[in-house]
Amino acid sequence: MRLPRDSNLRQPNVTAPHRLPGLDWLNFFVANFQTGFGPFISVYLTSTGWTQGAIGAALSTGTIASMASQVPAGALVDAMRSKRTAAATAIAAVGVSALAIALWPNFLAISAAEVVHSFASAILGPAIAAITLVLVDPGAFGERLGRNARYAAIGNAVAAGVMGVCAYYLGDRAVFLFAAVLAIPALAALATLREADSASLRPSPSASPRVRARSCNRSWQFLMDRRLIAFAVCAVLFHLANAAMLPIAAAAVTKRAESEAGLIIAACLVGPQLITAILSPWAGWAAETWGRRPILLLGFSALPIRGILLAFATDPFLIIAIQLFDGLGAAVFGVLFPLIVADVTRNTGHYTTSLGLVGLAIGGGATLSTALAGLVADDLGVGAAFLSLAAVGLIATALVWALMPETRVRANA
Amino acid sequence: MPRLFDPLRKIACAIAGYRRNGRVTLQIVGGALVIAIATGANPSAWHAPTPAEGVYDSTESTESTEALGARFQRFARTDLFRILGKELHSPSGQAMGRIVDLLVDEAGRPSAAIIDFGGFLGVGIRKIAIDWDTLRFDQNGKKDAVVTDLGRDQIKAAPEYKDSNDVVAIVTAPQSEQHGLAPDPGW
Question: What is the rounded CA–CA span in Å between residue A150 and residue A156?
Fold first, then answer.
């Protein structure tokens, strides 16, 4: 994507990052309908009379499918010329799986929906990142990713509120019907991004037929990129430290708080999203201006601080305040994950494959996190669990400092 | 995993049952469906409770048939109900959680119901075992909710139920001493 007109990186020419309302809404609605697929699905299945064993089996199927599809889905998006088609198919598939979950809560349909949803989600994230990469100039990519993360965070926050109300007044099934309906505005937002297809005809970092034509041995050398491996290792540790903090803190709130426990947990979910919405564009701007390393270190350092504070906090309202640090970490990671991978895979034609690879690392770290922290919490108590997570976060921060080089590439370099 | 086979087995058995004895299958309605079809699939494994055992209630809503060497009892849909997934309410009508599992003693009598307690959109849920004797199922003939005598405060501080633990702490009403709370494991 090295076109002559790119020389001034503060003035993107393809499309200014703030002039893509379709991309804003796409991120908003996608985050919106994905919220229902979280831990809420086990609540819903419980309410339809599922046994715990069956719920565990269906959700594990989804987890395994999600891990298994990260890299193939990324490679598929790389291979597809139209990232918009990839994203549209994935959105439709997520909508259909939400509908199936709402209408046929039997084991076969739910397991199938979980698998379809996992694969579609593994396509959707990289596809949106690739569309963004095609639509904006390299110099404006960080800022645009910040904006993407902002609208995704707002979507998450709004969805948590709306779906909570939905579940309370209309029943658990309504949450999934609502999620299915949201696929329609998401597709409409995607439909407005026509430039994404025409622009992708140019040689771009995400899809370059010339690069793909190289020999197999050569084209997979991007996997050996030291920067990509270093970032993947840091990402595993980030999520190993991060993923279990909210569930354990929320369970502690359930145990300690009075009847308003549900509202406090809701605040622990929504509060960090608002912080993410506020900080993400700044994180994108700062990563372009000051470089990736300092911002990455800042975001990672929020983890040990949060873990140590949660270990000693007992007041539920204090837990809400500490959870706001989650917003800083999420903003930095949400922006720098697609940004650093784009830096590292520039002109290789393997952007979304690499996103899938790091996505696999993230999934592994997050899954291990809840399992290991749960064991520590059972045997040694919640405080010890938070301190262990803080220690992992500290190691993650140290590894960023020791292993991660600055990956920013100046557009005219 | 049994869920996977349930629908398939139901269909297969319904077809088999219909071919062997169309009359019986056609009479099956509502809640009795699962029981009667399971009987058709495996007659030797099902022992229908006799009237002497006190389960059979000779009201107009039930009837008994003999076919293929097994007895079928039919109950009206409103006389039987599933318990997994039912909401648990406090006496004041406050939602306390959902019943997700049952614990029975050696004699097969229910000792406790495991409930999903608290949380928001599935985050922060704790599994807690509630004494079966505190549960009431006859809320003005309304069968979609189960009521417990326990209050929210009595339940929330209980240690979490874990399938793997040796000791199960069952939350029970203060006046009854039959179970008692196990020591809090470090929470």
Answer: 10
